[in-house]
Amino acid sequence: MKTAFAVIGANWGDEGKGLAVDARASALIQNGHAVTVVRSNGGAQAGHSVVCPNHGRHVFHHIGAGTLAGAATHLSQFFVAHPMMLADELSRIQSLGAPRPPMTIDPRAPITSPWDMAINQALEIARGDKKHGSTGLGFGETIERMEKGPALVAQDLYTRGLAEKLDTIRRDWLPLRKAQLGLIADDSPLGAVLSGTEDAQAVFLRDCEAFVSAVELFADGDLAGDETIVFEGAQGLQLDMNFGRMPHVTRSRTGLANMIRIAKECGITSIHTSYMTRAYATRHGAGPLPHEADTPNALPWLTMEDRTNAPNPWQGTLRLAPLDLDALNRAINADLQEQTWSDISIDPHIGITCLDQINEAAPLIAGGQTLHFTAKDIPLAIGKHVGLKVAMQSWGDCRNKVIMSEN
User: Fold this and answer.
1) Catalytic pick from 22, 48, 61, 106?
2) Known binding-site positions for IMP
3) Cis bond upstream, residue 247 (ω within 30)
4) CATH 1.10.300 fits 114-213, yes or no
5) Which residues hold GTP (predicted)?
6) What's the CATH fold of domain 3-106+218-404?
7) Is 272 designated active site?
8) Which residue, 14, 173, 184, 228, is the most exposed by fewest CB within 10 angstroms?
9) Is 14 a catalytic residue?
10) pTM across the whole model
11) Half-sphere exposure of 107 toward its Cβ, with a 13 Å CA cutoff?
12) Region label for 275, one of left (φ > 0), alpha (ψ between -120 and 50) or beta (otherwise)
């Protein structure tokens, strides 16, 4: 039996997936495993924070959150790669004193172009107060182009025909997509890129050269040789394109679906799955958040400092609420039920982060009632309601504050 591990956000993202991946990778490496973290969905819009005793703090976007623990990174066929962002992240990791991580990418992985990013930002600006909650990095527009226009995949970055493919996107797809959306370059602060000048293409080609020098092609099906795989999910189940509430979703499968497809390709037979949640709920971006607090001061039981989710023009300010256990239960059960057809064995459990931020009895919503629990009692309450063992708890922002119990 070949077992992999998985970290999945059970809410709207920001559940502590970076910490969980770092802790899991570190524990495996300390036990003699070679570890590869596989990004199984999303793209560079993810922000997975890791605080490491030896290397300080880093927010991972492109690179696996097990890097500071010594893990390699693989970008799967379901990860949208962003050459414009990778070089900067590699530089920041090396500035922390960490070695440059080994990185591979499946040849089928979609690639974000500068025009995908510009269209995304211009469209979100045009929506005004009806924003969808985009991060502005072109993820959804990349998927749109891949489905309905000229494809650009990782394999293309390593061939001589890249410039011609970019010409096709710029000359054919860009004006078509602008017309579909009613975007006028002259009316947008992103007009220079939206007008289709060649300057953006020249810069992007240099970004692609840097990407190729840092990342090797490697098929998903060749994974899980001698190394142990840790799947790193992005966003959360409440944002899943098939489960979340439209239009405030990501164009991605945020749970087990992609992981199982990769597992089948590379011969993994079981996945030890951590469904992550904070001890409370958060949402960074537009869309419904049940029981949302009007202000942080409305949550006197919570002492929180979030250095990852800074206010920004695309997502606004991080929003907070008591954790709704019924919503959590529905999301996890929906993800598990969808995979009952698979012959991959799933061993699910709960991971809870930010317990150290609960300074007095905190509310949990269950069955329409509000019940209050101290930090030490929250794991038992969540596990009992969801019907899964709580096998990971964090009482701080670093791996040495994480308690894991597998049995």
Assistant:
1) 48
2) 14-17, 135, 235, 250
3) yes
4) yes
5) 13-19, 47-49
6) Adenylosuccinate Synthetase; Chain A, domain 1 (3.40.440)
7) no
8) 184
9) yes
10) 0.92
11) 9
12) beta
In the annotated binding site, the residues are 13-19, 47-49, 135, 235, 250
Q: Tell me the binding residues for GTP.
A: 13-19, 47-49
pLDDT (tens, 9 = 90+) of the chain, 407 residues, equals 699 999 999 999 899 999 999 999 999 999 999 999 999 999 998 889 999 877 788 999 999 999 999 999 999 999 999 999 999 999 999 998 888 899 999 999 999 999 999 888 888 777 655 544 456 789 999 999 999 999 999 999 999 999 999 999 999 999 999 899 888 765 555 666 677 776 889 999 999 999 999 999 999 999 988 999 999 999 999 999 998 877 778 889 999 999 999 999 999 999 999 999 999 999 977 788 888 887 767 899 999 876 655 555 545 578 899 999 999 999 999 999 998 889 999 999 999 999 999 999 999 999 989 999 999 999 999 999 999 999 999 999 999 999 998 75
Q: Which amino acid is at 367?
A: G
Give me the catalytic one of 14, 22, 106, 397: 14
Distance between CA atoms of 404 and 23, rounded to whole angstroms? Answer: 9
Contacts of 405 (CB under 8 A, 6+ apart): 391, 392
